[in-house]
Amino acid sequence: MVAQFLGLKLRLMGNAFRRSPWQVVGLSVGLVYGFLITFVVVGSLIAARFVPDVAQVHHVLVVVGSIVVAGFFLLPLVFGVDDTLDPRAFSLFGIPNRQLSTGLLLAALIGIPSIVLSICAVATVVTWSRDVGTTLIAIVSAVLLVLTCILASRVSTSVASFLLATRRSREFGGVIGILIIVLIAPVIILLITIDWGRDGLGVLSGFAAWLGWTPLGAVWSVPGEAAEGAWGIAVLKLVVAAATVGLLWLAWTSLVAKMLVTPQREAHAKAYHGLGWFGRLKGGPTAAIAARSMTYWGRDPRYWISLVMIPVVPVFVIVALTLAGIPGHYVSLVPLPLVCLFLGWTIHNDVAYDSTAIWLHIVSGTRGIADRVGRMFPPVLIGIPVVVVGSIITAAVYGDWAVLPAVGALSGAILLIGLGLSSLFSALFPYPATKPGDSAFAQPQTSGASAALVQALSFFAILLLASPIIVFLVLGLTLSPFWLGIAPVAAIVLGFGSLFGGLYLGAKAFDHRGPELMAFANRND
Fold first, then answer.
1. Whose CA is closest to 51, among 130, 155, 113?
2. What is the reported pLDDT for 411?
3. What is the mean pLDDT of the chain?
């Protein structure tokens, strides 16, 4: 049975070279790239055998190895992968669960990541072959390492087959993956700023001391502890590594048993009762468009994925400003206006999101002002509590409540300016957007630089109109508190002036460009 599984996996891998020539070329380039990386890693591990500082080698391997184990577990779970040997494909063959689990696990050893991992695991034996004892325990650790990574990959792939079966769940997983990468990015930036020549060993030893007792790094730390003479600690970490493999094996066999009797998850249409937002927002065309917009923002991945990403942007800005040496209390003033900037800018291409459904507005004779105001409802509903709560938090973190009116006024004004300009730009300069029903991560091809130009103009126009308020706030913080009182006045004038002006001009443009908008929607369908 095991031989049949291995033969099946080999045939599946061989079929990959029977695709179109360009796919074969891409696959070949990937293989060459992977084996070059393997060559470099193996060479480094062999060279580490001759490094006299055992502790340094130990700490580096634990930190890097923990990242490798985490990658085997997280990547399939977050992004999903195509499982060529899904246990459900064997549900009608009557194979015992334990036998099927073992066969699929051994078949998983045949694959590019698994082969690369196995070669590197063998190279770690060379790294720790300093005496007979460490060599033997390094061999045991290498076997446990391969089993840990393969089992982690199989478990996460199986879990992903349940959680990421539908397109919406895959998009949600993609958002989580992006958020993880974004949250890790500041840590990477901070690590880059470390003086590794002076403090590097201390940082690595701190990470290694913690990771060495976790399932991620225990298997990597065992031979290092033995090489340093700490055999008691090495045995304890070996127990942790073996227990990790045991728990992963139990999870794998349980998942196989579950998958054999569970059909593949399908997307189910939800049964909605009542009219939803249409029942809550009763009135004329403006209320109907506002209700439709709220429904879109709640159900359409194109909207809520963009909404989820808005709070992420300030993370990079805060890290960059902190690394630049700007005092923390000044940095605390930045996140809220940035969130309001992107929130107001979100609807600058809202007409394109409707695709051909825009004809409903045109043939029904909907006035432009009703369309413009109705589309503003979701960002306004979200923006009001964001401005109120965010201003209080910002003033508290800054440490001076005198800045509260100016910060709140600046953030509110940026939101209003963004909504006004977006109302104008979405009617004047729509550009191709992801179609309804398509993946939110699939961006359409556009000719020329029109999309980038519209995005840049609409974004920087908001900053330009808000610049006087920003200047007054800066003057109030650096020269005289008098300017903190001027900032709210300027915010009211510029904010509401831009909002009403954008709504008026956008409504006029929508009324006059109805046929052009319909032609744009059909051209990009």
1. 130
2. 93
3. 81
